[in-house]
Amino acid sequence: MGSLTMLVATLILTGSAAAQQSIHQVDFGNFVYPLSGPLLGHHGLVWLDPSQSRREIRLVAGSDLKKTSSFVMDGREYVQYEGFKLDFVKFADLTGDGRDEAIVVLRYLSGGSQTSNYVYVHTFEDGHPKLLAYCHTGDRAYSGLYGVNGRGGTLVFELFDADHRSGDCCSSGVIVRRFKWQGNRFEPIGVPEHRAIAAPVSIPPGING
Asked: Which is nearest to 104 in space by CA: 65, 144, 155?
């Protein structure tokens, strides 16, 4: 049964790769991602080196979450999970070749209050997705991820501003940072922009579905 389960997972993860014609057809919910460094304690955006990765995140149906604990209150079970889940995928041309790249955002759930976001940028080459770069952001109010987009050929991050935090969880401000692809890595451009948001929040609308 173990071998059969592994075979099924492999087929899901590699599933119709031969039929893919663009990055838009890649199933990033059934996909393998590199992972390096500690999972928690992040206080900012840090680009990571794929060649230094010693672990993998293997998503099936959008997650690799595992139940860590549960308790029952008023007849209802409350469950805590640890692991990664796919938050969202966006598309934009980030390399200037006229073709879209995929901006893939994963969220790590610790089973407690701390979280981390990992952002992976993939291009499409020779019929397959190819990782260009990936990074982690901070934890919640400490440069946690509020949003990320591709705009005008640049990769734009909106990170919670720790100077406007309300405890560890929330912030009423964001810092906007922009990056440009320089052939083999994303380099920062311009000056970080500070702006207010409507109300202190810890997780942006849409990340939780």
From this structure: 155
Taking 3-state DSSP, the helix, strand and coil percentages for the chain, each rounded to the nearest 5, stand at 10, 55, 35
- For residues 92 and 5, the model is more confident at 92
Higher pLDDT, 5 or 114: 114
Which of 144, 134, 80 minimizes the C-alpha distance to 109?
80
User: What are the CB-based long-range contacts (under 8 Å, 24+) for 188-192?
Assistant: 189/154
Q: Is the pLDDT of residue 76 over 90?
A: no
**Coil vs helix vs strand at 35:** strand
Pairing of strands 145-151, 154-160: antiparallel
Which residues, in sequence order, are CB contacts of 81 under 8 Å at separation 6+? Answer: 65, 66, 67, 68, 109, 111
DSSP 8-class letter at 21? -
- Domain boundary assignment for the chain: 22-201
Structural tokens at position 94: 């980030």
| Mean pLDDT, residues 119-136 | 96
* Among candidate residues 140, 148, 147, 138, the one with its CA nearest the CA of residue 165: 140
pTM: 0.84
- At position 142, the amino acid (one-letter code) is Y
- Residue 25: which residues within 8 A CB-CB, separation 6 or more? 16, 19
Cα torsion 181, 182, 186, 189: sign = negative
Angle at 84 between CA 79 and CA 87, to 5 degrees: 100
